[in-house]
Write a structure and sequence with these properties.
The chain is an alpha/beta fold and 434 residues long. The protein is built from 17 helices and 7 strands. It folds into 3 domains: 238 residues, 3-Layer(aba) Sandwich (Rossmann fold), CATH 3.40.50.700; 109 residues, Cytochrome-c3 Hydrogenase, Chain A, domain 2 (Irregular); 36 residues, no CATH class. Helices cover 33% and strands 9% of the residues. The strands form 2 sheets. A 5-stranded parallel β-sheet has the order 2-1-3-6-7, with helices on both faces. Bound molecules: iron/sulfur cluster (2 copies).
Length: 434
């Protein structure tokens, strides 16, 4: 486990706060203010989808951080296997500097992809995932350095260690049943006792691919904390940003109203709730439907797809076979079908009532040139009468109390524009304000 660094130790070894009384001994203090922070992006068993998702983040985007133009934020120097322009030794050197403590600025590591058990590959003299090469013994051959080795080297000194995407957070697809690599998550690899140099356990931002803004927003919040300008953001018991992953997909789903009324899609492309096509949304923590996949657009149900629970630690094994109705869904849909059948009909009546002006109710006619809209039937009128009584029980209904004198022409005399124009005395009254 890494030791907790103190403010004066980290800032280039120049003590800025004497560690003597009366100053209290600083513990796990934010770094701030810092001008530059290095981000080492380490790819394990990944498809680079997380990188694509983050590159597409807009709120906030990564460009401002990389350019150092976001007020109060340090400039981020990104060392990324795909996005960096350096190659070869020039690319690897900062990783070595960070490992050997020669970097002048603090650093954060971001792990994308799960971490393979390299001991398995080593048995046959190979490796699963690596970055750069090193000569391990004098006169020896140059060998690839496994990603797992880089994580072991850099994690203890990192200001924060972030796992992005479901492969890095929970193992994901590479760790599915039957995999030959022994792939695991960053938390599994570093263990329960791991803490970053500033006392933080692994921060997890899941999703396959994750919502890009979820990542950038969390990084901004952590940087504010490291700057000493904000509190430590709230994380849940699994290290997920609590404000992003507390709610289920279902609670924010644009199809949840259909579920409640017991109406379900039979085919892809239908607008109703997708649970019978295999949606796991009611039990999955994810905000993509509320936030959109990118730039507030898209998201699984928005685009017509079911939730396969890609943000969850149990993904994929606990949610397969995909596209088959979950057993729990069969019970809850049967119940909502029963209650929904009643609620749906009652709402249809209320909706019809809401679609009529008060004036039309009085005239019992709708002056629409688009269709012949019938007035309410006597039964419906009676229901509306009692509904209104109940609605305003103990409250004041709109308008003047009965018996109060009319002060404006036409309030209780619904008519058409023709009536109005024919009624010249009323017109003059209105013009003269009488
Ligand atoms: S589509 Fe899925 S998340 Fe949306 S309402 Fe249906 S079950 Fe819930
Ligand atoms: S809604 Fe489900 S499948 Fe879609 S991103 Fe969220 S967890 Fe993954």
């Amino acid at each position: 486990m890494a030791t907790v660094l103190e403010r004066d130790t980290v800032q280039g070894g120049q003590p800025s706060i004497p560690a003597t009384e009366p100053h209290p001994k600083p513990e796990r203090l934010p770094l701030g203010p810092i001008k530059t922070v290095h981000v080492f992006w380490l790819a394990g068993m990944s498809c680079d989808g997380c990188t694509v998702a983050v590159a597409g983040a807009t709120n906030p985007g990564i460009e401002g951080l990389l350019l150092g133009i976001v007020p109060t934020m340090p400039q981020v120097i990104l060392h990324h296997t795909v996005l960096s322009v350096e190659a070869g030794e020039a690319f690897i050197q900062p990783f070595k500097d960070a490992w050997e403590g020669r970097l002048q600025d603090p650093y954060v590591i971001v792990a994308e992809g799960s971490i393979a058990d390299e001991r398995i590959a080593a048995r046959t003299g190979g490796y699963f995932s690596a970055m750069g090469t090193e000569v391990l013994s004098e006169g020896g051959q140059s060998c690839p350095v496994p990603s797992a080795e880089w994580i072991s080297r850099l994690a203890p000194g990192a200001a924060a260690t972030i796992a992005i995407g479901t492969c890095a957070t929970w193992g994901g697809v590479p760790s599915a049943a039957g995999n030959p690599t022994g792939a695991m998550s960053l938390m599994d690899f570093l263990g329960k006792d791991y803490r970053s140099a500033f006392g933080l356990p692994v921060i997890n931002i899941p999703g396959c691919a994750p919502q890009g803004d979820n990542f950038t927003e969390t990084v901004f919040a952590i940087l504010l904390f490291l700057q000493g300008l904000g509190p430590l953001p709230a994380f849940d018991e699994l290290g997920r940003p609590a404000w992003l992953f507390t709610e289920t997909v279902h609670r924010g789903c644009n199809r949840a109203g259909y579920y409640e009324e017991g109406v379900f899609a039979k085919n892809y492309g239908d607008p109703e709730c997708l649970i019978e096509l295999g949606c796991w949304g009611p039990v999955v923590n994810c905000n993509i439907v509320k936030r959109g996949a990118m730039n507030h657009m898209g998201g699984c149900m928005e685009a017509g797809g079911v939730c396969i629970a890609c943000t969850m630690p149990g993904f994929p094994d606990k949610f397969s076979p995909f596209y088959k109705e979950p057993p729990g869904g069969m019970i809850s849909t049967a119940m909502s079908r029963g209650t929904g059948a009643v609620i749906r009909r009652a709402r249809r009546l209320s909706n019809r009532h809401a679609n009529s002006e008060v004036r039309w109710d009085k005239l019992n006619a709708v002056p629409s040139g688009w269709a012949n809209v019938k007035g309410a039937s006597p039964t419906l009128k009676m229901m509306e009468f009692f509904y209104k009584k109940w609605q305003f029980w103990g409250a004041k209904a709109p308008g003047r109390p009965k018996g109060t004198e009319d002060r404006f022409w036409g309030v209780d005399r619904p008519g058409t524009s023709a009536d109005y124009l024919d009624d010249s005395s009323a017109r003059e009254d209105a013009r003269d304000g009488r």
